[in-house]
Design a protein that fits this description.
Layout: H1 3-24, H2 38-43, E1 49-53, H3 55-80, H4 84-92, H5 106-109, H6 112-134, H7 137-157, E2 158-162
Parallel strand pairs: 1-2
Length: 170
C-alpha cells in the first residue's frame, strides 16, 4: 500500500469514527436527542435516509460498524508488517455470515438497499481474504477499495436513528 493510500484510509477511518461519535452522542447538543422525520432532516441539510432502530438494534449496528473499522485498521497493520496469515484471518472474520446474532427485528428494520450494501461489503472482505491467501496483492487492494467504497456509499445514503421510548411504564 502506498503512503498516499494509507493516508487516505486513515482519513476515511477518522471521518467514519467522527460520524459514529456524532451519532452516538446526540450531535453534541445539550438537548435530548429527538427522532426527526426524513423531511425535517432534509431541511436540516441531511438528505440521507433514516434507518430507525430500537435501542438494542441501534447499539448492535454501531458495534458492527466499529468492528469493521477496527478490522480495516488491523488489516492495514498486517499488510504493513507484512503478515498475510493475520490478514486472511481478519478479513475472513468480516466475510459473509460473520455479523453474529442480530437482535430481533433487525433485518426487517433495514432498507433493502442497506442490506445489499452490507452483503457487498462482506463479500469484499471475503475477496480480500481469498486474494491474501493467494498472495495476489492487486486483487487484495481491489477488494479493499470495494469494501471502503461500499462503507462510504452506505454512510452517504443512510443514517441511524434510535426510536425514542414513549415514556409509558407498563
Amino acid at each position: 500500500m502506498t503512503k498516499s493510500q494509507s493516508n487516505l484510509m486513515l482519513a476515511l477511518l477518522a471521518g467514519v469514527f467522527g460520524i459514529l461519535l456524532y451519532i452516538s452522542f446526540g450531535a453534541g447538543t445539550d438537548e435530548p436527542a429527538k427522532a426527526k422525520s426524513v423531511t425535517e432532516a432534509q431541511v436540516a441539510g441531511d438528505p440521507r435516509e433514516a434507518v430507525v432502530l430500537n435501542a438494542e438494534q441501534h447499539q448492535f449496528a454501531l458495534e458492527q460498524m466499529r468492528g469493521l473499522l477496527v478490522t480495516i485498521r488491523d488489516l492495514d497493520a498486517a499488510e504493513t508488517i507484512p503478515d498475510p496469515a493475520t490478514a486472511i484471518e481478519l478479513a475472513r472474520a468480516q466475510g459473509p455470515g460473520s455479523g453474529g446474532k442480530h437482535p430481533d427485528g433487525f433485518h426487517e428494520a433495514l432498507p433493502e438497499g442497506f442490506r445489499q450494501m452490507s452483503q457487498a461489503m462482506r463479500k469484499s472482505f471475503a475477496g480480500m481474504a481469498d486474494a491474501a491467501a493467494k498472495g495476489d496483492k492487486p486483487a487484495y487492494q481491489e477488494s479493499q477499495q470495494q469494501a471502503l467504497n461500499t462503507c462510504i456509499g452506505c454512510h452517504e445514503t443512510y443514517r441511524f436513528e434510535q426510536q425514542q421510548s414513549s415514556g409509558i411504564i407498563d
